[in-house]
TrEMBL record:
<dbReference type="Pfam" id="PF07690">
    <property type="entry name" value="MFS_1"/>
</dbReference>
<feature type="transmembrane region" description="Helical">
    <location>
        <begin position="339"/>
        <end position="361"/>
    </location>
</feature>
<keyword id="KW-1133">Transmembrane helix</keyword>
<feature type="transmembrane region" description="Helical">
    <location>
        <begin position="282"/>
        <end position="301"/>
    </location>
</feature>
<feature type="transmembrane region" description="Helical">
    <location>
        <begin position="249"/>
        <end position="270"/>
    </location>
</feature>
<feature type="transmembrane region" description="Helical">
    <location>
        <begin position="215"/>
        <end position="237"/>
    </location>
</feature>
<dbReference type="InterPro" id="IPR020846">
    <property type="entry name" value="MFS_dom"/>
</dbReference>
<feature type="transmembrane region" description="Helical">
    <location>
        <begin position="85"/>
        <end position="104"/>
    </location>
</feature>
<protein>
    <submittedName>
        <fullName>MFS transporter</fullName>
    </submittedName>
</protein>
<dbReference type="InterPro" id="IPR011701">
    <property type="entry name" value="MFS"/>
</dbReference>
<feature type="transmembrane region" description="Helical">
    <location>
        <begin position="15"/>
        <end position="38"/>
    </location>
</feature>
<keyword id="KW-1003">Cell membrane</keyword>
<feature type="transmembrane region" description="Helical">
    <location>
        <begin position="110"/>
        <end position="132"/>
    </location>
</feature>
<dbReference type="InterPro" id="IPR036259">
    <property type="entry name" value="MFS_trans_sf"/>
</dbReference>
<feature type="transmembrane region" description="Helical">
    <location>
        <begin position="58"/>
        <end position="78"/>
    </location>
</feature>
<keyword id="KW-0472">Membrane</keyword>
<feature type="transmembrane region" description="Helical">
    <location>
        <begin position="367"/>
        <end position="386"/>
    </location>
</feature>
Length: 394
């Protein structure tokens, strides 16, 4: 965004751009908090006397509660002011980080991650609708792009910074470092968010009606398989880089930075090229990311080649969200909130299943088996999607 654009948008009296930026920061902190265990998996497992596969379930448990929260938030909190709900969810994120930092047992870690999952699912289920109330209709795309910018920043820097700082201040220190940032974000929400009275309660019947549409159900399953394949691999990337590529902490951080930074390219490219022909693009994430994961199984010993492959994977990882959300907006435009809740639930459930499947394969067999499981899920997703025509509304 140029300076001129920034001045123009922030000067508009009918747009709460400060609140939008507060939500963007919340997104960055949510993503960082949710996936920080990926870059700290090994030391966290050692510190809690657990296996790496068990510690990986810290991501799956947050996904489980995120699924439940995304489906129920608009019903349970339907009559509450949306500002109150967002502030409360941010408070849960703060409590979760403190609990992780002081955790002395695997059970405490799981409880803390469950709280984070409620925050993740609740926030994402409400986020788009809140943005639509903060800015004029013509500015909604800009507001959404700012909010998702927080996701891109976290994806680029959270993992490499986590692994690097974890080696210096310990994994507990990394989570403590996030605490003041989240506390500041909570205060920012209190100050910047206007009052957002509820506009009615979403009916569970609407969710069921949308889910019963065959083309949408197929697309939802395809999304779950695509994200499931991604997180079967991504959750256990650090053990792979340590045991197969055999990198030190510095190189590990560089490779994670390469992967995350490539996400900016994916976001830009998807925003530029994803359009009316979205059907043909639905299979690209699973196809390309699956091929990259397969290549890593055979070519992971070279740090340079691994870095190149991870960059390609990172591009498609961020493009995947834009592709599937564009598909959703074009094909369920009559019930976008219901479809959005179902998409958030499906994605979080796929993250849960990916972490569970990957952890079982890692503990039961090897990291190669984990990556092979990811490739298999990608292949199933690609076959299901096909040309993508069966996922378009009649």
């Amino acid at each position: 965004m140029t300076d001129a654009t920034f001045i123009e948008t922030t000067s508009r009296p009918d747009a709460a751009w400060g609140a939008v930026m507060a939500m963007a920061l919340c997104v960055a902190l949510l993503i960082a908090s949710e996936f920080m265990p990926v870059s700290l998996l090994t030391p966290m497992a050692e510190g809690l006397s657990a296996t790496e596969g068990q510690t990986g379930q810290a991501i799956s448990i947050s996904g489980l509660f995120a699924v439940a929260a995304s489906m129920l938030i608009t019903t349970v909190a339907g009559r509450l002011n949306r500002k109150t709900v967002l502030v409360a969810l941010t408070g849960l994120m703060l409590a979760s980080l403190v609990m992780v930092a002081v955790a002395q047992s695997f059970a405490m870690l799981m409880l803390a991650r469950a709280l984070l999952g409620i925050c993740v699912g609740g926030f994402w289920a409400l986020a788009t609708a809140v943005i639509m109330r903060l800015v004029p209709a013509s500015e909604v795309p800009r507001g959404l792009s700012l909010m998702y910018g927080g996701q891109a920043i976290a994806a680029a820097f959270a993992a490499p910074m986590g692994s690097y700082l974890g080696d210096i201040i310990g994994w507990r220190g990394v989570f403590w470092a996030l605490v003041p940032l989240v506390a500041g974000n909570l205060v920012w929400h209190l100050v910047a968010l206007p009052s957002l009275p509820a506009r009615g309660r979403q009916s569970l019947g609407t969710l069921i009606e949308v889910l019963r549409r065959p083309y949408f159900a197929r697309g939802l399953i395809a999304a779950m398989l695509s994200w499931g394949a991604a997180f079967t691999m991504f959750t256990y990337l650090r053990p792979y880089l340590e045991t197969v590529t055999r990198v030190d902490v510095t190189t590990l951080s560089i490779l994670l930075l390469v992967l995350g930074s490539a996400g900016f390219i994916g976001t830009w490219a998807a925003g530029r090229f994803v359009g009316n022909n979205v059907a043909a693009q639905l299979k690209l994430p699973a196809l390309i990311m699956g091929a990259v994961t397969l290549a890593l199984i055979f070519a992971g010993a070279s740090p340079v080649l691994t870095g190149l492959l991870l960059a390609i994977w990172g591009v498609m990882n961020t493009a995947m969200s834009v592709i599937f959300m564009t598909w959703m907006s074009q094909n369920v435009d009559d019930a976008p909130e219901a479809a959005g809740s179902l998409m958030v639930a499906a994605i979080q459930l796929s993250i849960l299943l990916g972490a569970v499947i990957g952890g079982l394969l890692l503990d039961g067999f090897s990291i190669t088996a984990t990556f092979a499981g990811s490739v298999l899920l990608s292949a199933i997703a690609t076959a299901l999607i096909g040309s993508g025509r069966r996922m378009l509304k009649p």
